[in-house]
Amino acid sequence: MVDIVLDRVTKRFGSQTAVDALETTFGSGQVTCLLGPSGCGKTTLMRMIAGLEVPTAGRILIGGRDVAGLPPRQRDVGMVFQYPVMYPTLSVAENIEEPLRHDRSVSGGERAKRVDEMLDVLDMRDLRDALIDELNTGLRQKVAVGRAVARHAEVVLFDEPTTNIEVDAKLTLIRAIKAVTTRLRQTIVYVTHDQTEAMTLADSIALMEQGRIVQQDAPRALYAAPRTRFAGWFLGNPGMNYLGTEVRDGAVHSPMLAAPIPLPGGRNGQVVLGVRPEWITVGAGRAEGEVTDCVIGIGGRRLMTVRLGREVVRIKCSAAEAVAPGGWVRFSVPPDRVVLFDDKGEAIAALTQGVPA
Ligand SMILES: Nc1ncnc2c1ncn2[C@@H]1O[C@H](COP(=O)(O)OP(=O)(O)OP(=O)(O)O)[C@@H](O)[C@H]1O
User: Fold this and answer.
1) 79/206 same-domain check
2) In this predicted model, what pLDDT tens digit does every residue of 293-317 receive, in sequence order?
3) Ligand 1 within 6 A of CB of 55
4) What's the CA-to-centroid distance between 337 and ligand 1, angstroms?
5) Does the CB atom of residue 193 touch ligand 1 within 6 A?
6) Considering 224, 240, 274, which residue would you say is the last residue of a domain?
7) Which positions make up the signal peptide (predicted)?
8) How far is the CA of 285 from the centre of ligand 1 (A)?
9) I need a surface site. Which of 32, 33, 131, 333 has the fewest CB within 10 A?
10) Which region among 9-18, 28-37, 156-165 has the lowest average model confidence (pLDDT)?
């Protein structure tokens, strides 16, 4: 197994910096998801790892080896793209086997074994002899996954492989990718702007904004303890609530808190209190606001929009707890579910809480 080390990797297109002095490691045998808004540099970074784009500055090391100057073929990197290239007149099994035929180190017996392994883990045994032309886009993409990983490359790169797939087939494909990555423990870099996909697949999420990785953490840690307001907003549906909150006598005062939270450093003034909609407890508390909207979400949960003074708070709750628009609701937040941010939008480290379950 190999890790991927990025050593101040930069890519500029003219005056535009697409990737900005990235310095990090993508763990060996792990799935790292590159997540971020459109244009933040995910694909460019991926293409540099693959050798399809040359960095303007910095080094990329795969398994300790500087890959500068190595063409894509010599990098031992498999790839799955949005639009896979396949042989329409060959069967599923033949398509998976095809790249292995070019590898002299893989014997005929070994090839057959790997094709069987792929059909098995992708749950495609029944489709072994089906032609690619007969498959829908979701199944074709599964075959593309099989082709890319059957080579047993040390590194496999996925560039938004589920983008063109219908919703139902998407879940099946994600499950298949999860099964493959868990079984083979290759080092995976997976580009997506779909946070659910990243939360499902990733051992580690590298959240990108404007060519930089702003936070790299396990999905649960990134979700529970965002280090910036951007991270709190980008993850979650909807993202974190942010409320301007007063600091007085060395403590944070908010009607949402049962008691003030002491703030080290003796600062006074304002901080921003961040809280996720589902972390708010409904039914009791000092905060009371008017419900302006209430909609049904995933699993029958309700998303209420509540006016609290001049602020707007979104709250996720059960159907039984929900209050119709025009009604009033009381609510509170436990102190260990609060993230405080300074005026630059950075979490106040001393108060970043542990990762709640
Ligand atoms: N070949 C190129 N020439 C000029 N600019 C480019 C080129 N490739 C990418 N860029 C620019 O670099 C920035 C990063 O692009 P990139 O495609 O890497 O982002 P992304 O995060 O993958 O976006 P998306 O999610 O939309 O695919 C963008 O501003 C883009 O316009």
Assistant:
1) yes
2) 999 988 889 999 999 999 999 999 9
3) no
4) 36
5) yes
6) 224
7) none
8) 47
9) 131
10) 156-165
Q: Based on the domain organization, do 278 and 219 belong to the same domain?
A: no
- Strand pairing class (261-262; 251-253): antiparallel
Q: Is 121 in the pocket of ligand 1 (CB under 6 A)?
A: no
Residue-range definition of the domain harbouring residue 323: 230-351
Q: Give the domain CATH number at 203.
A: 3.40.50.300
Ligand 1 centre to CA of 243 (Å) is 33
Judged against a pLDDT cut of 50, whether residue 68 lies above it is answered with yes
Written as one letter, the residue type at 326 is G
pLDDT in tens, 78-111: 888 877 778 888 999 999 999 899 888 899 999 9
Ligand 1 centre to CA of 39 (Å) is: 5
In a domain, 357, yes or no: no
CB of 162 within 6 A of ligand 1: the answer is no
Domain boundary among 183, 206, 224: 224
Helix (H, G, I), strand (E, B) or coil at 97: helix
| Residues near 153 by beta carbon (within 8 Å), at least 6 away in sequence | 76, 77, 78, 186
Residues 220, 234, single domain; the answer is no
Do 93 and 219 have their domain in common? yes
Predicted pLDDT at 202: 95
Alpha-carbon span 224 to 139, nearest angstrom: 35
- Closest residue by Cα to atom 26, ligand 1, is 38
Q: Are residues 270 and 214 in the same domain?
A: no
Q: Provide the 3-class DSSP secondary structure of residue 226.
A: coil
pLDDT of 266 reads 66
Q: Are residues 15 and 136 in the same domain?
A: yes
Residue nearest to atom 2 of ligand 1 (CA): 13
In which band, very low, low, confident or very high, does the pLDDT at 357 lie, cut at 50, 70 and 90?
very low
Q: Whose CA is nearest to atom 24 of ligand 1?
A: 38
Specify the number of domains making up the chain. Answer: 2
User: What is the sign, positive or negative, of the torsion defined by CA atoms of 338, 344, 348, 349?
Assistant: positive
CATH code, domain with 248? 2.40.50.140
Distance 126 CA to ligand 1 centre (A): 40
